[in-house]
Amino acid sequence: MDQHNAAGVGTAPPGYGTDPNLVTPHTPWPRTLSERERALIGVLADIILPGTGEYPAPSGMGITDFFDEWVSAPYGTQQGHRAVITAGLAMVDAEAQRQFGAGFVELDPSRQRAIVDQIASTTAADRKFFIRFRSLVLVGYFTSDIGFKAIGYVGNVPLLGFPGVTPEAQRIIDDELRKLGL
Fold this sequence. Notes:
55% helix; mainly alpha; two-stranded antiparallel ribbon; extended; Lactose 3-dehydrogenase subunit gamma LacC; single chain
């Protein structure tokens, strides 16, 4: 349904804006995670996907910004993820308090890992958080420039020529075509 101003000229409907500009990225919605939640995300992400000598841990490449933008988005899917993530972060911090008398971020790494191991292998509610969290860590990391480099993804680049299929691959293709009678 078009909305019109007094002169009858069409105007954009109210809302949060247009799709993101991928050339010069800008998020048109406010970030909504607290500093505590962001700190928890950084520590948890680094436990799930530790850094290596060559590649930084997720907290070192901006995973908290990815999470904050994702769960702050005004879309249904992301808002559903927000509910799971924020409730899960609160559960992790509460469990750390219950077991060790301190917040999760303040615990030593062995205690943090013990809580993550418990969450990853227990109840459905806890697992739902862990599965969603782990998925977002992997998506955020491996769709970043650092993640692309880690998996050897070079993207859509021009080739000087197309080398074609290797002889070994061609033999497999030919064998399968013969089996199909083609």
